[in-house]
Specification:
Bound molecules: adenosine-5'-diphosphate, magnesium ion
Shape: elongated
CATH class of the largest domain: Mainly Alpha
CATH superfamily of the largest domain: ABC transporter type 1, transmembrane domain
Number of strands: 10
Distance between the termini: 76 Å
Structural class: alpha/beta
Order of helices and strands: HHHHHHHHHHHEEEHEEHEHHHHEHEEEHH
Strand content: 5-15%
Strand order of the largest sheet: 6-7-8-3-9-10
Number of domains: 2
Radius of gyration: 36 Å
CATH architecture of the largest domain: Up-down Bundle
Helix content: 55-70%
Length: about 600
């Protein structure tokens, strides 16, 4: 019961008053159908007693017909009434189906949109620990399963309302008989409980297995080239195939229980009614007409009761998905990033790190960083791998939050800034570049309209990134389609494309995390020349392995074990820092 309510409140969150409308329309359908059925009682009497029989009803139905509907119960009148009620029921039933479909679509899109919003504002710190397969599966397969869950829930809910209506009407007609049947129904429900529990269990398993399947599939696609080259794709394929088998078995088990329940339905209904009739006739004699009426109503009630259960079991079969969706949304909500409301209007003076520390899961990787970066300065970060350079850059873009101290932009704490206003002015190129499965033009301009102005901007950007000649040699030029994550480009080409995208963006702040490390010396030098040209017109923070590329930086920061060791110009450091001198010597500078 508690669970049923929990599911209800979950759907209610998205559908609100619409659930009540569903409820009332179902009630309406039940009432119309019940009255239509009840009219068979006077009909039966008319048929057995002939039209001359006493019309003033001694049974509740005839009474209802005469005093409430004001209709004289002749054969033609009663047949007419039956027809009218069943036609009205038909209309109500159409309405019921219509709103179900409508609300279902509404629910589905609300769910999808809210998930997208939640993922958008999900903090990076949490994302790195998230299960990618789960995210993927929840967004696709699970959303449609939750939608199916809603359909079953609706149906079982609607049938439940019908059961209620029929039982109440049967009680009015013949309390004793109804009581026996209802008692039988409750008993059966109790017996079926075990089957429901099994279904729910398998459903949960199915969802989690689906997550891992998706996870493996994503990796199979992402690492396709590597797996293929090393022959590991066979082993990986076997893992995938095993999962397919596991999924098949789980689905089969749920299906078996469903079929079992469906098969048991009719015999059980007939058994209960047979027992009730036997008791009624043998031990309590009563008005045959009323018994037949409540028999009709109860047969219907029981059939719908079983259908309610059947739908409920289908529902339980996908309830694992519903739970997953609930937890998933909750987790995303809990991991929502803090967002200030001050708009970033562009860097005016300084970015300052004020005693900033940062830790990943309790492990501190940056300690007490104090540093000022002035507007339009070029700052280079150097240091061994693992010293915290990438983490430092993450703190500037607001991707990561300091665990101690604060990052200030023109005196405003980053936490007070609206992050999207900040990020729209930040360019970021890292070692792992992202190439979208689209044309070169769209990759560089991020789907900008192809106006002559944008085209000019695009051309400047690709020239500065030293990828213009490569593009011009392609037959389709900027309309060339790039494969999945740029699989048909070389590493250096991808890198240059990523740089072109950031240059097109016309940013305030350019963050380059080993952006040119994958390039050959010559290409790196060309891009470097172009970046040198940008120097002084925007703030650049660059992490580079090859120290030759940062000779002209205004400031070089040496990081070691999460601490700043030295800050100075290339010349300064060559004079001051033995360590820096050694580093340059190692690179033959
Ligand atoms: P660098 O860029 O200088 O090579 P990073 O800033 O990437 O170094 O990493 C600094 C330290 O933080 C390393 O010891 C690394 O293992 C750790 N680290 C990086 N990312 C994570 C993460 N998501 N979770 C836990 N530790 C991390
Ligand atoms: Mg790094």
């Amino acid at each position: 019961m508690k669970n049923k309510f929990r599911y209800f409140s979950y759907f209610y969150k998205y559908l609100g008053y619409r659930l009540w409308i569903t409820f009332f329309v179902s009630l309406f359908v039940g009432l119309l159908d019940g009255i239509g059925l009840a009219l068979f009682l006077p009909l039966l009497k008319l048929v057995t007693n002939g039209e001359t029989g006493d019309p003033s009803g001694e049974d509740p139905v005839s009474e209802f017909v005469v005093s409430y509907l004001g209709v004289f119960p002749t054969l033609i009148n009663i047949l007419g009434l039956i027809l009218i009620f069943f036609s009205l029921k038909g209309i109500a039933k159409f309405l019921e189906g219509y709103i179900r479909v409508k609300y279902q679509q509404y629910f589905m899109s609300r769910l999808r949109i809210s998930n997208i919003d939640l993922l958008n504002s999900y903090e990076f710190k949490h994302f790195v620990k998230a299960d990618v397969g789960r995210i993927q599966n929840t967004f696709t397969g699970e959303v449609s399963k939750v939608n199916t869950a809603l359909r079953y829930y609706f149906k079982s809910f609607q049938y439940g309302v019908l059961v209620l209506v029929y039982v109440i009407m049967a009680f009015i007609a013949d309390p004793l008989f109804s009581f026996m049947v209802v008692a039988g129904g409750i008993l059966v429900n109790f017996l079926f409980k075990e089957l429901y529990k099994r279904t729910k269990y398998f459903s949960r398993k199915l969802t989690s297995q689906n997550h891992t399947f998706q996870d493996l599939l994503i990796q199979k696609v992402a690492f396709f080239k590597y797996l293929k080259t090393t022959g590991l794709n066979d082993a990986f394929g076997r893992m995938l195939k095993n999962k397919v088998k596991v999924l098949e078995r789980l689905q089969l088990r749920i299906g078996i229980i469903d079929s079992l329940l469906a098969a048991l339905r009719e015999p059980v209904v007939v058994l209960i009614i047979a027992i009730a009739i036997y008791l009624q006739v043998g031990y309590f004699s009563n008005d045959a007409g009323l018994v037949i009426l409540s028999l009709l109503l109860l047969y219907r009630a029981l059939t719908f009761f079983m259908s309610t259960q059947e739908q409920w079991n289908f529902f339980l079969g996908v309830s694992g998905s519903l739970e997953n969706m609930e937890n998933f949304s909750e987790e995303l909500k809990a991991g929502k990033e803090i967002n200030g409301n001050l708009n970033f209007i562009g860097l005016q003076k300084t970015i300052s790190f004020n005693k900033v520390s940062f830790n990943y899961d309790g492990k501190e990787v940056l300690h007490d960083i104090d540093l000022n970066i002035d507007k339009n300065e070029t700052v280079a970060l150097v240091g061994p791998s693992g010293s915290g350079k990438s983490t430092f850059i993450g703190l500037i873009s607001g991707l990561l939050r300091p665990s101690k101290g604060e990052v200030l932009i023109d005196g405003t704490a980053l936490t007070d800034l609206n992050l999207s206003s900040l990020k729209s002015r930040i360019g970021y190129v890292s070692q792992d570049v992202n190439v979208f499965n689209d044309t070169i033009f769209n990759n560089v301009t991020f789907w900008a309209e192809k106006t002559s102005e944008n085209l000019k901007r695009y051309e400047t950007a690709v020239k500065k990134a030293a990828i213009d000649s490569f593009i011009n040699e392609l037959s389709m030029k900027e309309e060339t389609l790039l494969g999945n994550n740029g699989i048909n480009l070389s590493g250096g080409q991808k890198q240059r494309l990523a740089i072109a995208r950031e240059l097109y963006k016309e940013v305030d702040l350019l963050l380059m995390d080993e952006a040119t490390s994958a390039l050959d010396g010559e290409t790196e030098a060309i891009i470097q020349q172009h970046i040198e040209k940008l120097k002084g017109s925007l703030t650049i923070i660059v992490i580079a392995h090859r120290l030759a590329t940062i000779k002209n930086a205004d400031k070089i920061v040496i990081l070691k074990n999460g601490k700043i060791q030295e800050v100075g110009s290339y010349k300064d450091l060559m004079e001051r820092s033995k360590e820096f001198k050694e580093m340059t010597a190692l690179q033959n500078l």
